Amino acid sequence: MGNTADTPQDRSVHVGRDANRNVITTGDNNTVTVGMQEITLPAPDTVDMTRELEALGRTLAALDLEPRVQKRIANALEEAEDESNAETPDRDVVGAALEPFARPVQGV
Question: What's 90's DSSP letter?
Answer without folding.
Answer: -
